[in-house]
């Protein structure tokens, strides 16, 4: 169900972006099958944290219990209370394009032939929570990124050999989620102990569970490949409409996968604001629904299968201000060998990787994504920490330290301008290229 409201949009001036990683146009039917491979991993960040918060809030609301004793009358000691996880967290989130077990619109023979089994990781994000639990970063890795892939153990035994260059989104089908983890570890230098995958059904269920997500559209979004035709303004999306919105490529930006990543960041930042300020975290029914949907539609690695771990990660996230939650795209440029693919910008990636490995706070200095612009009608969003005020075009100035900041507070690492993204506090609108 889609709820729309008229809204005036004052166009922000920005330079037209280069079209890195733009895919070839094709017959609409073939395009639909390919676009079905864009699963929504963006809600996974919320799913992991909110699912844990749901368990935590339910258990914390239980009334005092009867004291138990053993046969000698000695009190039986309860297990220790669960607190936030010690130290930082690196959690890989992958959206699989598999049609296996999806049913519904993905159950026909053409869909099953297009992708079955593990599928490809057409959406991949890495959640990094700092050691002191004061900031979080979500890094999106383009599906068309051409990189070396290390040797990966097969889920059922044996090994898939390393390759000097291949598309990043083949890692899941090559060796399961473990192969995707090993590849991202090689790219970033981080150790990643937690990982999960989510399917199409999980995306639909998550958006329904939160009661829909309201997004801003600077331009009409018309994308027949995913079945969306939305006017400019605001739209509250849930169910299949939410899935179609974040899968859309032809309706946003320059038609590239990089534009789609930017559009997903618009959705995810709006979702983050709803979770923190829209009453979701205070609604036990919604929290339980989110946790149940996550459990039914996510495949978790061993490190996440323990409910206590989910709760601990949630507790590490719950007090991070929106201004300290950053969504960014791994830095890329056009592949000289193929204009429809992208390669890492080594110098920019090195700065980002070093900041993540050293657990330094980061600050964006470049543009917001190519399929987004700042909402000129936005109202201020409360943040737990000072948030830089963005200027037109998405530039984020160096923040002035708060007078109450402690001397121990670290100055953020200012990322190169080739790294695009936004914070959860920045209210943005999806757009087409100028």
Automatic annotation (TrEMBL):
<dbReference type="InterPro" id="IPR004474">
    <property type="entry name" value="LytR_CpsA_psr"/>
</dbReference>
<feature type="region of interest" description="Disordered">
    <location>
        <begin position="374"/>
        <end position="410"/>
    </location>
</feature>
<keyword id="KW-0472">Membrane</keyword>
<keyword id="KW-0812">Transmembrane</keyword>
<feature type="compositionally biased region" description="Low complexity">
    <location>
        <begin position="378"/>
        <end position="410"/>
    </location>
</feature>
<comment type="similarity">
    <text>Belongs to the LytR/CpsA/Psr (LCP) family.</text>
</comment>
<feature type="transmembrane region" description="Helical">
    <location>
        <begin position="32"/>
        <end position="56"/>
    </location>
</feature>
<dbReference type="InterPro" id="IPR050922">
    <property type="entry name" value="LytR/CpsA/Psr_CW_biosynth"/>
</dbReference>
<feature type="domain" description="Cell envelope-related transcriptional attenuator">
    <location>
        <begin position="120"/>
        <end position="276"/>
    </location>
</feature>
<keyword id="KW-1133">Transmembrane helix</keyword>
<dbReference type="Pfam" id="PF03816">
    <property type="entry name" value="LytR_cpsA_psr"/>
</dbReference>
<protein>
    <submittedName>
        <fullName>LCP family protein</fullName>
    </submittedName>
</protein>
């Amino acid at each position: 169900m889609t709820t729309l409201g008229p809204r005036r949009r004052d166009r922000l001036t920005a330079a037209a972006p280069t079209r890195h990683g733009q895919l070839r146009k094709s017959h609409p039917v073939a395009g639909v099958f390919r676009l079905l491979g864009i699963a929504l991993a963006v809600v996974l960040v919320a799913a992991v944290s909110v699912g844990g918060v749901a368990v935590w809030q339910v258990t914390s609301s239980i009334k005092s219990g009867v004291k138990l004793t053993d046969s000698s009358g000695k009190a039986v000691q309860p297990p220790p209370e669960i607190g936030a996880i010690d130290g930082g967290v690196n959690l890989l989130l992958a959206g699989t394009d598999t049609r296996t077990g999806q049913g519904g619109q993905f159950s026909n023979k053409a869909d099953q032939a297009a992708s079955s089994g593990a599928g490809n990781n057409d959406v991949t994000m890495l959640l990094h929570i700092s050691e002191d639990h004061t900031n979080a970063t979500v890094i999106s890795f383009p599906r068309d990124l051409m990189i070396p892939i290390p040797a990966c153990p097969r889920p059922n035994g044996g090994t898939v050999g390393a390759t000097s260059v291949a598309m990043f989104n083949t890692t899941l089908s090559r060796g399961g989620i473990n192969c995707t983890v090993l590849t991202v570890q090689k790219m970033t230098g981080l150790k990643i102990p937690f990982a999960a995958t989510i399917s199409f059904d999980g995306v639909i269920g998550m958006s329904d569970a939160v009661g829909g997500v309201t997004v801003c559209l600077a331009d009409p979004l018309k994308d027949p490949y995913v079945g969306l035709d939305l006017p400019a303004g605001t739209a509250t999306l849930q169910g299949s409409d939410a899935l179609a919105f974040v899968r859309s490529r032809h309706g946003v930006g320059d038609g590239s996968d990089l534009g789609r990543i930017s559009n997903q960041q618009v959705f995810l930042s709006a979702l983050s604001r709803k979770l923190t300020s829209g009453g979701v975290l205070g609604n036990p029914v919604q929290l339980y629904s989110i946790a149940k949907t996550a459990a039914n539609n996510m495949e978790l690695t061993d490190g996440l299968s323990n409910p206590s771990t989910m709760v601990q990660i949630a507790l590490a996230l719950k007090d991070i201000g929106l201004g300290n939650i950053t969504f960014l795209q791994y830095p890329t440029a056009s592949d000289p060998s193929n204009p429809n693919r992208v390669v890492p910008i080594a110098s920019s990636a090195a700065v980002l990787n070093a900041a993540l490995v050293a657990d330094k706070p980061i600050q964006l200095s470049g543009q917001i994504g190519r399929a987004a612009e700042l909402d000129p009608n936005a109202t201020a969003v409360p943040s737990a920490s000072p948030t830089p005020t963005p200027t037109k075009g998405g530039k984020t100035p160096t923040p002035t330290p708060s007078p109450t900041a402690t001397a121990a507070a670290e100055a953020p690492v200012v990322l190169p301008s080739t790294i695009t993204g936004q914070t959860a506090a920045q209210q943005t609108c999806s757009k087409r290229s100028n």
